[in-house]
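quick one, 99 residues, struct below
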Amino acid sequence: MSSKALLVEVPRKPGGNPFKVLTPQAIAAVRGTRWAVDVAEAKTSVFVADGRVGVSRRARGRGVVLGPGQGVDVEATGPLTVKQWGQPRIDALMARLGQ
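---
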């Protein structure tokens, strides 16, 4: 397989260790939410359905915080640009995840 995707739902909890997903391009850290990570060979896409998720590049640089309906594509270079995802892209990812 050249790519993988997962849908994560983490309940809010005070204190404790944060839940993180590490991919070759990104680190996505939960802040009590439902979100998806789609990993391809050269890109990691993160989408938030509900709550907030912090995303940063593994190698360096500043991260971004995503809110509901927002996503970001993380590649080896270039800015981390937060975008409001359109329904067709959301539907395609959710279908891939069996949702």
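The CA atoms of residues 35 and 48 lie 4 Å apart.
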